[in-house]
Amino acid sequence: MSILYGRMGQHEKALEILVYKFGDINGKALEYCIDHSKGKSRNIRQDIYGKLLKVYLEPIDGSKPLFEEALLLLNNPNVDINPRTALQLLPDEWSVKKLGLFLQRSLRKHNHYYRTTAIEHSLAKWEHIRAKNQIINEDCKRTFITENKECQLCKQEIGDSAFVRYPNEVIIHMKCMKNKNICPVTGIWFGGTS
Ligand SMILES: [Zn+2]
Known about the structure:
By secondary structure, this protein is mainly alpha-helical. Helix content is about 50%, strand content about 5%. It folds into two domains: about 1-110, no CATH class; about 115-175, no CATH class.
């Protein structure tokens, strides 16, 4: 039966049968994934292993989720699971420590992806918040950044980008800032200890 589903490309069904009907004897489900992902693209490999993880964690027929198996699968160095898929499926109460190995490995594998998207995104967000806080903390006067307000350094619109405002009212993009203590337009030093 599972062979039939496998041929039809219905991996989730096939894996459900292997895991819950046949009790996942001798790692048959993992073997199935290995067989069906051999020589396939990374997306397909990740998809198949992700399906097995789903089958372990979200059984359909009221069986108990197989947490141990799921953890073993995640921490298996030969298994490639998209961390996004994994994080959606994993129980919230699982600690980062428990997932440490998996997360470390994923970060290494997905290094490029993370560097270019997720990390950059959160850094930008963080800088944006920090820049805003800085302005609020250092100066209680309101600054209205209108649509056409431009950065006094690169002369590009500020729009809703992060910006920095120096005490002498000079406003520039966060990204154009080299030193928060020196106004890049006038060269005035605004002190600070660092
Ligand atoms: Zn600028």
